[in-house]
Amino acid sequence: MAVVFDNDQLKHVATMQQVQQAAQAGSALIALWPLSTAQRLGNDAKYTENLQVRVTWAAARVLTGQDVTLADAEFVYEGATDIPGRPQEVVDALLAVNDAYERLEDYSRTGDVSLVMTAAEELNSGWSESAAKAVAATLERIEACVPDCRGDGSSEVGAVSRRLAFVIAASTALLVEVSDYGKSVDDPLLPDCVEGEPKSSGVADISCQQAGRRAAVLMLYLNELCERVILPRLALTDVQFCQIVEECAEFEGASPSVEAVAEVLAPLAQAEWVRHHDEIVFDPVAAKKAASEKEEQRKKAALAEKFKDVPEDKNKPPVEL
């Protein structure tokens, strides 16, 4: 399989304003590594646990169409197999998503696309045999491009933007396959890393909700693909994910453009990476001290305002407020 990683469209996507802004946030986050303090290591571990809860919560909402709560997701993450007063369908969906999430954790290290296909089966994605073959072929095509994409894992903004453009292109290509918004994997969504891929196939005229359920496994895959190409992980809410699916649906049978998906996905990546950065550098002692100082300043200002009209007694010794 000859790898040709030179796609003008990806270069263009990498220079988009939204992608550049996300890349700046990603660069700042990546530059924190290696984490050198116990505080930051602990903060990152807490973020990672919370990330799994948020990703599985969102995926379960997409799969069930029900009002799955974060509390539900937290209970199941902690080991619950039933939750009093909550539908068992919700719990079962969360259990399945957590199993799929943990199964896919090895993908970022091995690049084994069969893990993605197994996770899709566990989530009852409902792909036809031909659609599953097309998805598998696209996953292999993406994986063939990974070595060139990841490079040396530089935290430089330009390198991060190129890797993010690749992830966006990969996400778009897979949405084409699982939702059948495109007609051929030959559309220029990805670099031509692999030649002779089979044509896309799937069920036409499906609703966005159905498409979201068919594509739910991609919420987990996107997270792992970021890790595989040395980008920070991503978490999308069900609303955000459906926004991307709907963006693709607007093309009505034609392949959605990578640029259109980038306009939606890149700002979400930026927000998540800023959040991750802020959670890692958070220092509770410093935060408590800053809050105390701010409260003290507020009290001084309030006291000064209260007595601003009181005549000054020139014979009274000064009082420190």
By helix and strand content, what is the structural category? mainly alpha
Portion in beta strands? under 5%
Largest sheet: none
> How helical, in percent, are the residues?
55-70%
Number of self-contained structural domains: 1
The radius of gyration over CA amounts to 24 Å
Number of strands: 0
Low-confidence stretches: 1-6, 181-206
By CATH reckoning, the class would read: Mainly Alpha
Distance between the termini: 75 Å
Mean pLDDT score: 85
Characterize the overall form: globular
Quickly count the helices: 14
CATH-scheme architecture:
Orthogonal Bundle
By CATH, the topology is Fic-like fold
CATH superfamily: Fido-like domain
Series of secondary-structure elements, N-terminal to C-terminal:
HHHHHHHHHHHHHH
Concise account of the structure shown:
With 321 residues, the chain is an all-alpha fold.
Describe this entry's structure for a reader.
The protein has 321 residues and is an all-alpha fold. The protein has one domain: Fido-like domain (Fic-like fold, Orthogonal Bundle). Helix content is 65%, strand content 0%. The chain contains 14 helices and no strands.
Keywords:
321 residues, mainly alpha, Fic-like fold, 14 helices, globular, disordered N terminus
List the helices and strands and how they pair.
Layout: H1 8-14, H2 17-30, H3 38-64, H4 70-77, H5 88-104, H6 107-110, H7 114-122, H8 129-150, H9 157-179, H10 208-215, H11 217-228, H12 238-249, H13 258-281, H14 284-306
